[in-house]
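User: For my dataset I need records formatted as: sequence, then structure tokens, nothing else. Please produce one.
Assistant:
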Amino acid sequence: MEFNIALLKGDGIGVEIVDSAVRVLEKTAGKFGHTFNFTAYPIGGCAINETGMPLPQETIDGCLAADCVLLGAVGGPEWDSLPSERRPEKALLGIRSALGLYTNLRPARLYSALRSASPLKDEIIGDGFDILIVRELTGGIYFGERGYREGKMGREAYDTEVYSTTEIDRIGRAAFEAAMKRSKKLCSVDKANVLETSILWRTIMHKISEEYPEVEYTDMYIDNAAMQIVRDPHQFDVIVTSNMFGDILSDESAQLTGSIGLLPSASLGASKRGLYEPVHGSAPDIAGQNKADPIAEILSGAMMLRYSLGLAKEADAIENAVDTVLNAGWRTADIMGNTDGKPLSCTEMTDKIIEVL
């Protein structure tokens, strides 16, 4: 089978880790008899330098024409002084909106080989945990009206959160479907004791839950959820929540796995075309030094195969290769912990994964 994949390498370590993922995908394609055609497009800071805009129309058109999109990372201190509408991070919101991607899947799995890297106590970790956070991606406060005004206490800045019935309904159904494919357990996180948007959110989630009687459904306030993930992560399987709350909870749960450098994500919409990226950022402090951990990007590629291209066996092969390499004790610097030996470089870790494949 032949597929067209758009590459958005972006800034910082994005270039290195996307190149690593491409190598792994090419090895996988050869093993299973597929052809992956990769085309790179500028995004973020590098796009600003080339075109003056963080998200050129050429990039949007290229992504819309592709079967799926693999993204590295954007941003860096070079562009921090730019006005907010021209910052590299604006490109992330823009490309998600342009592709109609309203569902973000962020798994947080604790690998047994990295148990000691988790900041949680051993008795809390238990047999490990595997949480999937389903985050609404194109609505809420990140996309609401914003600006400045004069108030009673001087100049004010404001950001507005708005959620429609349609936005809540479609993310809710995506979460219930995800729960049906896992342990049939779903927790919806909101702030319905304070926010009108959360009251509507909870009302609609309850209505959807009536259509999924097999799913054990619960509600939880965001402040309690943030505490419970640290206190007892095993109680969660699938969590569904709003854009901002999902942003916070997914980073919190990611850190509990020992390193944010291991965690992939998928952004999906109504079609099979999705955007896949690591949870971590551009890490400009180590960019170009071949020190980056490529695993999150490689696993993002595996999610791409599974969710957009329907290649489950191929995705399993990549994920199993990562497991094997970690179980064998190979580590990049971010996950070395107290392990003896020299950490692998980005290319060396990629080599090990390809060897196992």
